[in-house]
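Hi F.,

I've been meaning to write this up properly since the lab meeting, where we talked about keeping a consistent format for the predictions we share between groups. The idea is simple: the sequence comes first, exactly as it goes in, then the structure tokens exactly as they come out, then a line or two of notes. No screenshots and no reformatting. I'm using this chain as the first example so we have something concrete to point to.
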Amino acid sequence: MGRGEKARYRLRAGWPVTMAGVLAMGVVLTALPAAGAATSAKPQSKVVLRFMNWWDADRETWMNEVIRRFEALYPWIDVRNEVQGWPDRSSKVMAAFAAGVPAELTMVTRSELAALADLDAIVPITPFLKRDNVDLKEFFAAEIQAFMWDGEIWSLPLPSVSGEGSMYFFNQTLFEEAGLDPAKPPLTWRTLAEALRKLTRFDPQGRIRQLGMDTHPPMVVHFTYVNGGQVISDDRRRALFDSERAVEALRFVASDLTQKAQGGAAAMDAFLAGAQPVERFVQGKQAIISGHPSVIVWLLTKVPADFRWGVMPAPYNDLRPDSKSRGIAGFQWGWGYAIPKNLSPEKQEAAWLFLKFITMDERGAGYFLLQQGRPASIRRFNLNPDYLKKMGPNWPLIIKYLDNDVAFPVLTVMKDIYDTVINGLWSPLAGAMEPDVALQRINESLQKILDDYWARRSPGKK
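Output, unedited:
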């Protein structure tokens, strides 16, 4: 499929709402409960809580520590950490609910969360948030937007969903060698294209030996939103990916960045040769990569001690006054946690307390994400001095750019939407199809997916 990239792009999702919309729902915005508040809860009879999740490898150890801390606060709750294998992950989730034997708390993608809500198989957490006076403004805005569905909030995130496309990491040494100032990275589409021309180097045979930046379909989506466009409407009923702004974004990535600045898709494919761009980046062979938070662990563990890297926001289109740097939270990823319907009141309360601890408590969510070097969804957790000590001087910029994100609209058919967009963009990126023609075809397919979904959805649903 080219560029060693296509296996990287998997399903993810979210639904944009404004904070005013959240307020209108009646969710009270006050201070988060104090860290020690949980200890004031009255002891209950023993409750066993099964936690179905995919936090494997080192993360299982860290999650076990989170569970130990939680059980110290709530000694009547016994959390069983049921770590699953990745093959057939989604099928396992849906089969457990279909059989009527789901875990009391299950780790799910946002599209699965919406599907389970459609099936009336889970409960929203909006009543718990209201009861506990949770201040939703403590979170990055996209984190709450990402889990809105039919006027309810169904989960809180772990890890954060923000950071997809909102920033890029760059090699400061390669910038200097190309005559670029690392203190002034490219902030606009025009200056980005100019920088890539200087950063991309060829051997005498015309083969790339140093790449400026890999280009790929999700980048087109990111730049569409930077350019003021959308893939689908906020109400999730209309496909909008054939707009002039989307065409501009695709043409910019396919022509200005891929073809003109870096020798074309074929040369880029040959250079990457099945490798992940982050591998080329840490090897000093690629100057810029998309700065998704999951990449940070590579920078912490796989780069030489003298490797110097910086962070820059997603460049905006300087030809459009309303274009601005932003990311799209959840187009490609996003984990939530589902509480099944029909649990006993004791088990439902235990599930909520644990969900709250792993997403909102610094001893839970803060600890777990710090171990991984990933941003927390709650802004103030990221101000922990241990983060700066572990992550270095780029950390404040990473947190700053996370706040630019908007959430991608969530739907149960998100996988179909995602696959249609990604698969449809490879041909124009390779120069095999005109951008406007490609986007028209993609948009027609997207509209059919949306129409089919709403046509078969229960009439009682919104």
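Notes:
The chain has a mean pLDDT of 88.
The two ends are 38 Å apart (CA to CA).

If this format works for you, I'll send the rest the same way.

G.
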